[in-house]
Every structure is written in structure tokens, then in C-alpha cells.
Amino acid sequence: MIVFNVDLDNTLIYSYRHDIGPDKIAVENYQGREISFITGNTYRQLNALKKKLLIVPTSTRSIEQYHRIDLQIGKIKYALVCNGGVLLVNGAKDSSWYEESMAMVRKSRSVLEYAYELLEQDSRRYFELRWIENLFLFTKCTQPEAVAAQLQKTLRTNLANVYYNKEKVYVVPASLNKGNALRRFRTLMSADQVIAAGDSEFDISMLQAADKGIAPHSFIKKYAVDFPVDEMAGKELFSEEMLRHVTALCS
Asked: Residue 9: which residues within 8 A CB-CB, separation 6 or more?
């Protein structure tokens, strides 16, 4: 069995803010609006690949956010969401996986509670503070880079990681990462090979844990990655170039 752990946003699907050309298919609806898309080429490649490997969306999205997505390629049996803390099987939360995740993050709880107190008082925060499935913290700030930097200096970073993406700020237990999720899922499925693809800081651990990691152009330099990654040339949309590369790996 070959497992393909693939990030969603900006790896496989793209927001309406991103111009991916006219040949596109809506894959996410929110409040009556089409907000995320895949290209027709991505759709065709995914349809072909699902016969060769097990496609496992692996995302930091919440359960609710993931359920808004339909890749239009039929049933996807497994998905890892909440940064790998939740395994969905046919769309339902796997209780054994979640209990194991909660046990893994327990020692980081006090650090996250302290981060919650700091963010609660931070005047730069303009969005509610959310505990995502009691696993990690999420909010939005007007100066996300500065907020994240301050938290990184204050918190015990051996127990929690701080990320920001545009206005979004996350505080995540160190053990709750996509790399650990990939390893756990590999053991669960007794997979022979694991391919992973992702574009952001959240995906670094997953790319490192896979047998073959695939990233967009300039990823290695941007994140100072010091392990082997198949970096794409960047002459076309990452989703299409990446899927063609995955197809070649499975040939």
C-alpha cells in the first residue's frame, strides 16, 4: 500500500483569491459562496491517482472546515485534520485516535493555557480565541508576526510551537504535528510507502517523516529545510506539478 498524505490549502486546493485560470471546479462552499477550487487538470490527476494509492488529506483545518470540502473524486475514506490530532473515517471522528492525541498533548496543556491568558489580554487580537477540539489554540491578530514572535519568546517552545499565516495565529503542542500523524497513520495502515506534499511551515515535519516529500519552488530556502525534499520547479501551479510528480513516483 502507498499512502499519499497531502495538505489541502495552497497544495491541492486554492482560495477564490488565487487566480488558477478558467478551467476550475468548486470544491468548497461556505454560506452560499464558492470559496475554494481545484483546476480541471488537478481533478483529472486525482481521479487517476486514487486507483494507485490511498489519498489522505492532511490538514490543520478543523473538522467543520474540512467537511465543507468535496474534491469531487468520490468517497475519501480517511482524512487527518486538526493538524493530525483527529482522524476522520468516512467523515466520522475516530475516538481511539483522538484519545491517543489528547494523551500526547496533555503535558503541553499548561503552556497553552498560559498562551490563552496572554492572547486574551492582547490588544492586537481582533477575533475570538478558539480551542480547536481541545488540541490547540487559534485566533486572528492585526500584527500576527509580532504576536507570534512575542509568544515564542515567552512560552516554553519545547512544549508548544507558535505559527502565523497572514492574520491567523496558532499555538500548537509540540507533539501535535503532521509528521507524528503520518507516522501513526502509517503504522495503523501498515503502509509500505508514504508520499507527502505540502507548502507551509505546518508541513515540514510531514515532509521529513515521509519516504518522499514534495514541496513548492523555494520551499527549502524559505524554511531553511535541511533534509531531502523534492522541490518543484515553480513554472506551473504547484498542485498540478506536484501531482504529476506523484504519478511518476507511482509508475
From this structure: 15, 36, 59, 61
